[in-house]
Amino acid sequence: MQTGLLAVDLAVPIGICAGVLALAALLYGIFRKFTRVSWLSWQVLIVFAATLLAGVLPTPASQWGGFALAAGLLAGAGAVVLAVGGIVRHAMLARIRPAPLFFRVMSRILGGLTAVLNLAVFVVVLGAPVLVALPLFGVQPAPLSVLYESAVWTEFLGKYAMDLLTVAFCLVLIRAGYRIGLARSVWTVFTVALGVGALVLAVFMAVRVPFLADFAAVIAGGMPSLGAGAPLLGTVIVAAICFAVLLVVIILITLLVNLLVRKLKGSLVLGVVDGVLMAVVFAALCFLIIAGFDFAVSYLVQSGAGLPFGETLVSVFGKIESLVTSSPLASMLYRFNPIAL
To answer: What does the pLDDT profile of the chain (341 residues) look like in tens digits?
Structure first.
């Protein structure tokens, strides 16, 4: 009886919060319209449906072949779905205006439904792996027993929770890479390097350039109370002034380069090429992160006993291994991890 009352007590506030969030998402989607709201939820679900083939297709015998099959299925389906989505959105935004009333109404309705779906997929993507992990770590809240015993969980959602998370993670990175673009990414890294170089150059100038060194000495002479620390503080002040001047120059150059990158994005062909190149880089980064994480888990499961707190590490990461291998696609990426070679 107490368990039932607890479940009811939890269900009421959770239901209220879910309803408020769903209403807010619906209103946001209606306001933004289908052409402006994110389609990520649809894309994640379509790619996830394509990755179900991982449990059906014959598995290659070689380690590289198995990883290539899983990664190719995920990245290939993701690339196709994102490309088609981009083309369709561009065509819809470029249509003749004003659109007929029917299409404007449907755009509002589909926008609201898509926004609600985005919220639902976000909750499921993050929440389902947590629900899978709870029993593995010996945590089984009684109010969740209804969910764990349902056919939806045992036959589908529980089996594919990690695959859904993997698909969402990969698509988010690929989309981010396309939106950032190669030119902007390279220039961001170069700007950080320029900032570090400017700091080093400012210190060098404050110490080695004669008139700046003399200026630092004058500043130090005005602070006799600091004693031996006065020369150091004078040098730091001059270096800070030099760094500020160099930083202004870097900012001006960055603004100019950003204008050029914006012009580049203004060209459809150049913008697409720029985005695709960085999307490929981010896709590679996605699989590198997955492979690195899987290798760390595998290593600690197999060799963690010799480390401090070895028994605890092996136990915890053994459960994480069970979580990672609970879905077909995530299991393939784990079992055929090329880093393990």
So the answer is: 444 444 555 566 777 888 888 889 899 889 988 888 999 999 999 999 998 887 777 777 777 888 888 999 999 999 999 999 888 888 888 776 777 788 888 889 999 999 999 999 999 999 999 999 988 888 877 777 888 888 888 888 889 999 999 999 999 999 888 887 766 667 677 777 888 888 888 888 888 888 888 888 888 777 777 666 677 778 888 889 888 988 888 888 888 877 776 766 566 677 777 778 888 988 998 999 999 999 998 888 888 777 766 787 888 889 999 999 999 999 999 999 888 77
- DSSP letters along 37-75, please? S--HHHHHHHHHHHHGGGGTSPPPSSHHHHHHHHHHHHH
Predicted TM-score (pTM) of this structure:
0.76
| Cβ-based burial of 34 (10 A; exposed 0-12, middle 13-18, buried ≥19) | buried
Residue type, 206: A
Interaxial angle between packed helices 229-266 and 182-208, expressed in degrees from 0 to 180 and rounded to the nearest 10: 160
Q: 41 burial class (0-12, 13-18, 19+ CB within 10 angstroms)?
A: buried
Please report the DSSP string for 153-174 in residue order.
IIIIIHHHHHHHHHHHHHHHHH
